[in-house]
């Protein structure tokens, strides 16, 4: 998207291809631009930039399987989805995971669930259908 910037977020990743594919498929954000050190995913109202960690930093990070959740953060990105059942399946196929259904809650008319991506980054989804 060229022109005026819209709302967005930046995620630093060790494997930008895997992480950008995860968010593209999970959140329905098309990849609009790729460079060796970043991938841009965009909708008309949101821009997610997945940036490669500097090699010196990436070398010090080991991503386990399943990944260790990086919960010590004050900010959590939130994505709208159609429903949690489908999103839960997509996340697991792509190396992430939603919390168990018993940990979901209602907020402002949406069913809400926390999750993590293939590198352990925490995010939240909100579904209008449940």
UniProtKB/TrEMBL annotation:
Glyoxalase-like domain: residues covered: 10-125
InterPro entries the UniProt entry points to: Glyas_Bleomycin-R_OHBP_Dase, Glyoxalase_6
Entries under Gene3D superfamilies matching the protein: 2,3-Dihydroxybiphenyl 1,2-Dioxygenase, domain 1 (3.10.180.10)
Domain of life: Bacteria
Record-given protein name: VOC family protein
Source organism per UniProt: Shewanella scandinavica
């Amino acid at each position: 998207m060229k022109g005026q910037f819209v709302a967005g977020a930046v995620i630093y990743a060790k494997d930008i291809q895997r992480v950008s594919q995860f968010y593209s498929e999970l959140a329905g954000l098309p990849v609009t631009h790729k460079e060796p050190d970043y991938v841009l995913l965009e909708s008309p109202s949101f821009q997610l930039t997945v940036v490669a960690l500097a090699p010196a930093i990436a070398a010090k990070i080991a991503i386990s399987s399943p990944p260790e959740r990086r919960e010590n953060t004050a900010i959590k990105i939130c994505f709208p989805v159609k429903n949690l059942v489908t999103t839960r399946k997509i996340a697991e196929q792509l190396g992430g995971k939603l919390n168990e259904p018993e940990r979901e809650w209602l907020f402002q008319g949406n069913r809400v669930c926390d999750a993590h991506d293939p590198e352990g980054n925490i995010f939240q989804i909100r579904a209008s259908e449940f």
